[in-house]
Design goal:
Strands 1-9-6-7-8 form a 5-stranded antiparallel beta sheet, with no helix packed on it. It folds into 3 domains: 120 residues, Apoptosis, Tumor Necrosis Factor Receptor Associated Protein 2, Chain A (Sandwich); 79 residues, Potassium Channel Kv1.1, Chain A, CATH 3.30.710.10; 80 residues. 31% of the residues lie in helices and 28% in strands. 26% of the residues are buried. It starts with a strand and ends with a helix. It has 10 helices and 12 strands. The chain is of the alpha+beta class and 299 residues long. The longest helix has 13 residues. The chain is globular, with a radius of gyration of 23 Å. This is BTB domain-containing protein.
């Protein structure tokens, strides 16, 4: 399964004529998965440009992040499949560089638009950090709608939520009375759970065993596929929860890859009776067929 810790770091660097040979320009930091990411641009003595991805973690101990990156410059693909490993004291991986003679091909003049499309393939030593604040001045400035959940206000962007959730796309663009409102109340949702859901949607925090079930429930309700994918990846590759816990979530939310992995981990010592849900209807006919076949294979 493809790892779903994916995000994009974008930066437009202006006033490039002021960047001297041997100098750096630094982009703005964005927080994704508990660490800060930023692009820096280096100009060497020959006038070539080196776009460089920085990873800055608040952790003081040993940590590492392995990534696979595609670099987009001026809207055009520049480099693909670059492998970088970040640790607490260095970055390992070859830096791409844009030759001065190729600047025009990538729209580089007084400015340069650079994107790193990042996919994290492995993380170690990174702990969950403080949640994103959806009620501060930064959130309010970027917001065009306020969601009221319980006693909390969440200042969010309609386009971003609509892009990742069919529920919010319909809510904001449909014929509902709420579609034209700047303040919308979401009823019967726990604000803490909604905060956790947004943290994963915005990729600012890491999933944990005690939050994944509730986040998955909201992701299913809001039809936020990227959050569902991140929950499934966590349950498959990182969660230490029991087989029963994972299997029941896989069946309930139709997580095909997690279901298949759970079946592959069943052995003759597995308590199959324990895996059967209280409501037998939670298993459709195909699941019952797979489940029965697996159990019988160990007789």
């Amino acid at each position: 399964m493809t790892d779903n810790k994916e995000f994009i770091v974008r930066q437009v660097f202006n006033n490039l004529s002021s960047l001297k040979n041997g100098d750096w320009m630094y982009g703005d930091a964005v927080k994704r998965f508990g660490v800060d990411w930023r692009i820096q641009l280096y100009k060497n003595d020959s006038g070539n440009m080196y776009p460089h991805l920085l990873c800055e973690s608040p952790e003081t101990g040993d940590w590492s992040i392995i990534t696979n990156c595609d670099v987009i410059v001026g809207g055009k693909s520049f480099k693909t499949g670059l492998q970088f490993k970040f640790t607490h004291n260095l970055m390992i991986g070859g830096l791409p560089f844009i030759k001065k003679r190729d600047f025009a091909n990538y729209g580089i003049d007084e400015s340069a638009s650079i994107e790193f499309h990042v996919r994290i393939t492995e993380m170690t030593g990174i702990k969950k950090r403080k949640s994103m604040n959806f009620d501060d001045d930064v959130a309010k400035e970027a917001s065009d709608v306020v969601l009221i959940v319980g006693d909390q206000k969440f200042y969010v962007n309609k386009m971003y939520l609509s892009l990742h959730s069919t529920y919010f796309k319909t809510l904001f663009s449909g014929n509902f009375s709420e579609s034209k409102k700047s303040i919308i109340e979401l009823k019967d949702i726990d604000p803490k759970s909604f905060q956790n859901f947004l943290d994963i949607l915005y990729a600012v925090s890491l999933l944990e065993n005690d939050t994944v079930s509730e986040i998955l429930k909201l992701a299913d309700f809001f039809d936020a596929k990227i959050v569902v994918q991140r929950c499934e990846e966590f349950l498959m590759n990182h969660s230490k929860e029991s087989l029963k816990f994972k299997f029941q979530l896989a069946i309930k939310y139709k997580l095909a890859e997690l279901k298949n992995k759970c079946f592959s981990e069943m052995t003759k010592t597995t308590n199959f009776k324990e895996l059967i849900p209280e409501n037998a209807a939670d298993f459709d006919s195909e699941v019952w067929k797979e489940f029965s076949s697996k159990a019988i294979s160990f007789l």
